[in-house]
Write a structure and sequence with these properties.
disordered C terminus; RNA Polymerase Alpha Subunit, Chain A, domain 2; single chain; seven-stranded mixed sheet; 4 domains; mainly beta; rod-shaped; 7 helices
């Protein structure tokens, strides 16, 4: 082996030779690539024109402002790039934008910005500015009105809608639009319902005077919960407390204060129309001490519900006292037509009444507060013993047993005069007649026979053919010349 062969077979030499060959190969390859790029690039760059790229606004503080106008809405955009880059990009990738982050209310002219796809270069944009009109937003509070539509099931009635948690909302609009708001509310259908609506979510909207929805209005809150009572027809009537029985011995009521004196009743409309009040029985015998008492209302036929069904009354019970009211006149009632009545006992025609009640109520009692009545209904002339009825203020009672008076009833119609008192003779105006005179004027009894020259019985009917001359007249007609 020669020295050269030995040197070439050395590992280090082989490595150096391999490295040298690699460097030569790398240099050749990259030298060829570096010579070709310039003519290739220069021959593949193209331009592209977009005639109507929409201008997009961003950055506006929409809580305080609204963009009312943007002019122009689109621009002409010219770009440049390789065919491959231009083809890869879609129309939506070419953006023209305007920054509104710093604007306030008013008109502004702002510079446009082009946002292009990767590999595409900007050439020109016409125009390159845009004019914007910005208006300030304002907020106003409105009361919400919920309108119900439809009709509940037959026999049922819809009440007033109740909103939760509030019945007021805030409406935000541009200042020029806010004045258009005439109503804020929502609609709720109650068609065919027989049960109350509870917690129904209703979306709210702002409406103008013509009832049209105002678009763009921001409502806070935008949704409210609504309750609508669906009930039978109802009516509110007074409660009449009826005193039943007697208070325990020695006790009286000094005050009687119900929590309410009205009740709402539910039922068919025809029945409601006929009900004027609802009664509640106060059982006096059970009131032995002061305190609150729960009293049940009397039921009324076809009334389905009472609100409230019971009434709580604050009652004050005290020891009784008595007081006599003297000289009360008696009122006569029920006397028939044509009759008169006279109280014969007592002769004064007045009575003394002893009343029992709470001391304070007795002290305040006046004679005019007590009425004494005697009922003579169905009685004719004669003498009668008639019980009297004493009407007194509530919780004040008559004591001492039943009382009565004696009444004489008489016929108070006067006797009617007989016709024919125009006869000649010595007639006197008081019904007496001289000899030969006629006597038409005194009421001397039925069927009396008149003597010669006397006049009697004007109150009785004259008999047929009662002409007489000189002698006694028949059937109470006085004799007299020419007497008919």
């Amino acid at each position: 082996m020669t020295a050269l062969d030995k040197w070439l077979s050395h590992p280090t030499v082989m490595k150096l030779v391999a490295l040298a060959l690699g460097l030569i190969l790398w240099t050749v390859v990259h030298f060829d690539d570096s010579q070709s790029p310039t003519p290739i690039v220069s021959s593949t760059i193209e331009s592209k024109t977009f005639n109507a790229v929409k201008v997009q606004a961003y950055g506006l503080n929409e809580q305080n402002y609204v963009l009312r106008n943007l002019e122009p809405e689109s621009v002409k955009l010219v770009v440049q790039g390789t065919p491959i880059d231009l083809l890869k990009a879609t129309t939506e990738d070419y953006l023209v934008r305007v920054d509104l982050s710093t604007v306030t209310a008013g008109r502004h002219t702002l510079k446009l910005q082009a946002d292009l796809p990767r590999g595409v270069n900007f050439v020109s944009m016409t125009p390159d500015t845009v004019t914007v009109d910005v208006e300030e937003m304002q907020t106003k509070e409105f009361e919400v009105e919920i309108e119900t539509s439809g009709t509940p099931a037959e026999g049922f009635k819809a009440g007033i809608p109740v909103l939760k948690p509030t019945n007021r909302v805030h409406v935000t609009l541009p200042s020029s639009e806010l004045t258009r708001v005439a109503r804020v509310g929502g609609d709720l259908s109650i068609e065919g319902l027989s049960e109350s609506v509870k917690g129904k979510s209703v979306k709210l909207a702002a409406y103008d005077a013509e009832g049209k929805t105002i678009e763009g209005a921001v409502l806070n809150p935008a949704v409210l919960e609504v309750d609508v009572p669906i009930t039978n027809p109802y009516k509110t009537v007074p409660i009449q407390f009826k005193l039943v029985g007697q208070m325990p011995a020695g006790l009286s009521i000094s005050s009687f204060k119900p929590e309410t004196e009205q009740v709402t009743i539910y039922g068919p409309q025809a029945v409601l129309d006929s009900v004027e009040f609802v009664e509640a029985d106060v059982l006096l015998g059970s009131l032995t001490k002061s305190g609150e008492v729960e009293i049940q209302l009397r039921s009324v036929d076809q009334i389905t519900e009472y609100s409230p069904a019971t009434v709580v009354v604050d009652v004050n019970v005290v020891l009784s006292q008595t007081r006599t009211i003297q000289g009360l006149p008696v009122t006569i009632e029920g006397l028939g037509d044509g009759l008169s009545a006279k109280i014969t006992d007592p002769a004064t025609e007045k009575v003394d009444i002893t009343m029992q009640g709470a001391p304070a109520m007795l002290d305040a009692l006046q004679p005019g507060d007590v009425d004494v009545v005697a009922d003579l209904s169905g009685r004719g002339p004669g003498v009668y013993t008639v019980p009297i009825v004493v009407n007194s203020p509530r919780f004040i009672d008559q004591v001492g047993g039943n009382m009565s008076i004696t009444v004489e009833i008489s016929d108070d119609q006067p006797a009617s005069a007989l016709p024919g008192d125009d006869s000649s003779g010595g007639a006197n105006g008081d019904g007496t007649a001289g000899a030969g005179g006629s006597g038409a004027g005194t009421d001397s009894g039925a069927g009396g026979q008149g003597g010669a020259g006397s006049g009697s019985g004007a109150g009785d009917a004259a008999g047929a053919g009662s002409e007489a001359s000189g002698g006694a007249g028949a059937n109470g007609q006085a004799a007299g010349s020419g007497a008919d």
